[in-house]
Amino acid sequence: MCSIPSLSSSDDSIRLVSQVQVVLSEVRGVEPSLPSDIILKNEDGPRYQYAHDSNGAIHLADLWLTLGDLFNIARYNPDSSNVYHLFTRANPTVSQPLTINNAGLLSRSNYNRNRRTIILIHGWMDSATSNFSTVLVPALLRAGDLNVIVVDWSRGANAIRYREANENTVRSGGAVARFVNWLNQESGSSLTQYHIIGHGLGGHQAGVVGRNLQGRVPYITSLDPALIGWATNINKFRRTDGQYTEVIHTNYGMYGYIADLGHMDFYPNGGISMPGCDSNACDHARAFFYMAESVTSGGFTGRQCINYYAAVLMMCSGPRTSRMGGLIPKTGETGVFLLETNAAPPFSLG
Fold first, then answer.
1. Are 221 and 248 in contact (CB under 8 A)?
2. Counting Cβ atoms within 10 Å, is residue 201 exposed (0-12), middle (13-18) or buried (19+)?
3. Are 341 and 301 in contact (CB under 8 A)?
4. Looking at residue 51, what is its pLDDT?
5. What percent of the chain stands above pLDDT 90?
6. Domain segments of the chain as ranges
7. Which residues neighbour 60 within 8 Å (Cβ) at sequence distance 6 or greater?
8. Region 11-243: CATH code
9. Predicted local distance difference test score (pLDDT) of residue 63
């Protein structure tokens, strides 16, 4: 229970992952005879870079892919290790864990097929008890009578090697989609009831989930999706991952992705240096604080921008305005928007 207070896109790399998985399935418990530090993929620039997780802790991240990474990726099985923590108004602070193919757990839970279901996906070095969850779960349950499911993919997210964590992001996304299909088949729910929200690496994973569900999820929100390893990653968040996709950028160029990715992209305060923050970790976290406030009180009116360059320069004067976040998808709307916030709650200026 939980309490609330790429691989290279090349065919060769994909084949190599498959071969490693076959070897591991056939030779359990046998360590590879090849050196694990053989470099398979290197990025432009330095190999190591300091990076913060969503709670502000600093880690020295390895951005290159080694043979050892492939073996670790192959060992991570999200279908068996991911746990799905259900919160409802009947159990708002202590979760009811669900696992795929366990109908008994589901039948004994407070899951209601007639409610909307919100799926929350945490980021790097996080878990189901991260700040992302402890902020959003109470806000969502105040806003509506919902099924809120927190995905704990910490077995994959807690890889200190960043390339490994990125690949686990994609693998977990496929597993979450399979869980959703099983849940719907078992309960009689429909994809039309879903909203997926992810933060950091989870922001990209939310898109992967939607993609594996053929883009039929009505609403997907990516909160400051991760930058490192995703600029040229074919698995990054896409606007076509859902029927309506929205991205909130709060730390572009550091933790977060800079360019627009969704049907609608919002750049609070230009997308970096949030008022009241004195660190990149704080900026990065502001995305889920803003989202939480948006579902309970609305607010956060953005002004249309020509493009994301104009948004980061805070030079937007378009004729349209739109509300950021919230529980209702703005299906059919597109564009880039700028808004300003207060330094402390309530963050919205209206």
1. yes
2. buried
3. no
4. 62
5. 74
6. 11-243
7. 48, 49, 50, 51
8. 3.40.50.1820
9. 58
